[in-house]
Amino acid sequence: MKDEYRYGGMMEEIGRLTSAYSFVEAHPIGWSVLGRPIAALRCGVGPKPIHINASFHANEWITSALLMRFVSELSECYRTGRRLGGQDVSGLCCETTLWAVPMVNPDGAELVQGGLDTVPPHYRDTLLRLNGGLTDFNGWKANIRGVDLNDQFPAYWEEERKRRGIEGPGPRDYPGPYPLSEPEAAAMAAFTERLRFRAVVALHTQGREIYWNYRDYEPPQSEELARKLGAVSGYEPIKLSGSDAGYKDWFIQNYRLPGFTVEAGYGENPLPVRAFESIYAELRPLLIESLRL
User: Fold this and answer.
1) What is the per-residue burial (b if ≥16 Cβ within 10 Å, else e) of 107-133?
2) Where are the domains of the chain?
3) What is the pLDDT of residue 109?
4) Which residues does 50 contact at the CB level (< 8 Å), separation at least 6?
5) SS3 for the chain, per residue?
6) Which residues does the annotation mark as catalytic?
7) What rounded mean pLDDT belongs to the chain?
8) CA torsion through residues 259, 264, 269, 274, sign
9) Is 210 in contact with 230 (CB distance < 8 Å)?
10) pLDDT above 80 for 1
11) What CATH number labels 7-108+182-290?
12) Environment class of residue 185 by beta-carbon count within 10 Å: exposed (0-12), middle (13-18) or buried (19+)?
């Protein structure tokens, strides 16, 4: 893998996958603030829809590359009949349809990797000010308007706003002026409402942990499912408290179905590309197991 995983390269890869495999379809589910289409990939023919997303946070862009590697391998194994990680892909994909959104926050991911050259000139002074005058955006988690997309969902949003105590845009932790104010978060909510997934997995970094609960709204099987995900990956299931307004939180609250936040890898964000292969080796069995949720 190269030292970056940019939006343009990802969209080219999506084009190659949809051309090579009839198994894979690409659908735009909305647009970022700067007008970049947010792509969803449909993989599988089964009646059970499962959703996995990546790069809600800008400096966690390595999750996009991890999810795209999984989609690519899944597609190749489905076409050839080969097993993936010892698992029968054909059987899984006849039972399940995976809906993957590999880059929820394309503007932010581009800013972290490419800097101010990736944004229109009229954004640059504001972004530089919000970033404390630094041209290095490696600490930036938010979208291009300085809103943390994973604090945007209507699941005790007011509680999260008070807890964060951030009153305006910045690199991280500002929940926005109101829930779903940002087009990326609104697109994810509408997409989820439309397709009614059986379960969702949100890929983040870092910590090698799996968060599986939300304010006791989760169904009884969630803890056991988290243990299964942990058993195949080595990640630790954690019962989390003191956090609201995330995508996984909203999904659990709204649908009373299993939702998981997976903190992949370990270290300081953005995780180094040299760790990609070792992270993927841990994550792939978890992603395969996610198709059984």
Assistant:
1) bbbbbbbeebebbeeebeeebeebbee
2) 7-108+182-290
3) 98
4) 96, 97, 98, 99, 197, 198, 199, 200, 201, 290, 291, 293
5) CCCCCCHHHHHHHHHHHHHHCCCEEEEEEEECCCCCEEEEEEEECCCEEEEEEECCCHHHCHHHHHHHHHHHHHHHHHHHCCCECCECHHHHHHHEEEEEECCCCHHHHHHHHHHHHHCCHHHHHHHHHHCCCCCCCCCCCCCCCCCCHHHCCCCCHHHHHHHHCCCCCCCCCCCCCCCCCCHHHHHHHHHHHHHCCCEEEEEEECCCEEECCCCCCCCCCHHHHHHHHHHHHCCEEECCCCCCCCHHHHHHHHHCCCEEEEEECCCCCCCCHHHHHHHHHHHHHHHHHHCCC
6) 263
7) 97
8) negative
9) yes
10) no
11) 3.40.630.10
12) buried
CA distance linking residue 44 with residue 22, whole number of Å? 10
Closest CA to 130 of 152, 113, 111: 111
Q: Nearest Cα to 251, choosing from 210, 206, 219, 285? A: 219
Tell me how far apart the alpha carbons of residues 40 and 30 are, in angstroms, rounded to a whole number: 9
Tell me the C-alpha distance between 149 and 60, whole Å.
12
The rounded distance, in Å, linking the Cα atoms of 279 and 176 is 31
Give the Cα separation of 287 and 199 in Å (integer): 12
Token pair for residue 219? 């169904």
Helix axes 7-20, 62-80, angle to 10 degrees: 10
Structure confidence by residue, pLDDT tens digits, 170-204: 999 999 999 999 999 999 999 999 999 999 999 99
Please report the pLDDT score of residue 180 as a whole number. Answer: 98
Angle between helices 247-255 and 183-195 (to 10 degrees): 30
Percent of the residues in the chain that have a pLDDT greater than 90, as a whole number: 98
**pTM given for the model:** 0.97
Tokens of 286: 């978890």
* Contact in structure between 118 and 6 (CB atoms under 8 Å): no
